[in-house]
Amino acid sequence: MPEMREIAPNIYQLKVPLKLSEPFINVYIFRGETPTLMDTGTNTPGVFEMIQTALQRLGIKRLEQVIATHWHVDHAGAAHQFAKKGARILIGAKDYGEWKTFATGESFGIFREWARDEWEIPDGLVIEGMVKTYEKLRHMTSWPDQVEQIAPFQTLHAGNYALKAIPTPGHTMGHLAFFEEQQKMLFSGDILLPDQVAYPGIWLEEGKVTSGLPSQLKSLDTLEKLNALQYFPAHGEPQVNTNERCQESRAQILHQVQKYDPHISVYEGALRLRQGKANPVALFTQLHQVYGWKQVNEQLSKSVNILEENG
Ligand SMILES: [Zn+2]
């Protein structure tokens, strides 16, 4: 039996192993009026069974709903198996399409374009290596027949609690954190993690290819305003220093932006981080990061110019 513990009355943290760069994901089980699972682990053998066993142990006969913090394979991958057992599946409105197009492979064409145009990856083999990695990941998720969309700031019942969906874009466009206002508990997904800053996503916004990093910085501001007393991340252990960690994460991002060299391509910047080695999995993350630094850097220099013009 995997590690499970009660982190608040009738809320349980279950550590589910992953076969990804992250060794575990925390899924949260809410027991009570509305039996709820937050995040699911991947669509890989054993994961669904492990969570089912935990539910049984907690005396939960029927899971009413699955809430995903975002669409990534470790968070929503196994959702369709719970859907088959009659649970409703809910995800942030802006992650709905991202998940669907990834699960069906539709987004792969646009990924090739972005890799060439935005990141300036010259070699077809490098892009194909990343697409292969993507293809492997695609098998760790599956699109359920029915998925409901969570609106920004919508309140959801989970167990005996009320959770407010807080839009926290950055890691994905539709990422949601969930806030329990009575006890000031924050379920932060991947937007606030104790030991790392999750890489920023990339998506299309108003027709423009957009890095998630500028939004990620704003999301940290949003979280800080909640004044949560505790946060429960998707990776790592529960923490009490929510606002401190928001500030630390922001400082870490801005420090990297400062070191960013705008004279080289995103691809070259990522290679420099890899010291020339191009492992497709690591490269994928690094490209997202460098692209994020580039866009934040552009925004910062634009605002400096405006200040100078007005001054
Ligand atoms: Zn994650």
From TrEMBL:
Residues 24-235 form the Metallo-beta-lactamase domain. It comes from the Bacteria. Signal peptide: none annotated. Pfam families: Lactamase_B (PF00753). SMART domains: Lactamase_B. SUPFAM superfamilies: Metallo-hydrolase/oxidoreductase. InterPro entries: Metallo-B-lactamas, RibonucZ/Hydroxyglut_hydro, Sec-metab_biosynth-thioest. PANTHER family: ENDORIBONUCLEASE LACTB2, METALLO-BETA-LACTAMASE SUPERFAMILY POTEIN. This is Beta-lactamase. The lineage of its organism: Bacteria, Bacillati, Bacillota, Clostridia, Eubacteriales.
